[in-house]
């Protein structure tokens, strides 16, 4: 006999959110993109779970378009970094704090 385990409401919401974003093509390439050789160190940690849903939504709200192609927790410029790629192939990194608020770009030469 198997016991049925209940999913926590927050886990259900995260799964539903990821499913919605994946259905829109927003996060479909994330596992491969984060695992690909992108020149980043192996210590880079991808955003996961509910945080991924929130960070992706915040980044896309900031850019207005595109798809999330890479993420990182503990980036040197902010708590979260979300890379968004536009249809023309250009990329932008959106920096977020722990509350998923956009961190203003540093003036005077921060790489973008």
Please characterize this protein's 3D structure.
The chain is α+β, with helices and mostly antiparallel strands and 112 residues long. Helices cover 32% and strands 17% of the residues. It contains three helices and three strands. A three-stranded antiparallel beta sheet has the order 1-2-3. The longest helix has 15 residues, at 9-23. The protein is globular, with a radius of gyration of 15 Å.
Would you kindly provide a brief summary of this structure?
This protein is an alpha+beta fold. It is built from three helices and three strands; from the N terminus they run H-H-H-E-E-E.
How many strands appear in the DSSP assignment?
3
Strand content: 15-25%
Which bin fits the share of residues in helices?
Answer: 25-40%
Number of helices: 3
Which regions are unreliable across 5 or more consecutive residues at pLDDT < 50? 1-16, 28-42
The major pleated sheet works out as:
3 strands, antiparallel
Structural class: alpha+beta
- Average pLDDT value? 73
* Radius of gyration, taken over Cα atoms and rounded to an integer in Å: 15 Å
What is the H/E string? HHHEEE
Q: For the record, give the distance between the C-alpha atoms at the N and C termini, rounded to a whole number.
A: 55 Å
Strand order of the largest sheet: 1-2-3
Shape type: globular
Give the SSE layout:
Layout: H1 9-23, H2 30-35, H3 49-63, E1 67-73, E2 80-85, E3 91-96
Antiparallel strand pairs: 1-2, 2-3
Q: What attributes characterize this protein structure?
A:
32% helix, alpha+beta, three-stranded antiparallel sheet, 112 residues, globular, disordered N terminus
């Amino acid at each position: 006999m198997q016991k049925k385990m209940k999913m926590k409401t927050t886990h259900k919401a995260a799964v539903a959110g990821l499913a919605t974003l994946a259905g829109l093509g927003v996060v479909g390439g994330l596992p491969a993109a984060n695992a690909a050789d992108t020149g980043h160190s192996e210590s880079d940690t991808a955003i996961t779970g509910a945080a991924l849903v929130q960070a992706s939504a915040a980044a896309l709200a900031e850019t207005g378009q595109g798809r999330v192609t890479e993420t990182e927790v503990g980036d040197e410029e902010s708590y979260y970094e979300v890379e968004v790629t536009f249809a023309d192939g250009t990329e932008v990194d959106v920096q977020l704090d722990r509350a998923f608020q956009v961190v203003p770009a540093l003036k005077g030469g921060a790489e973008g």
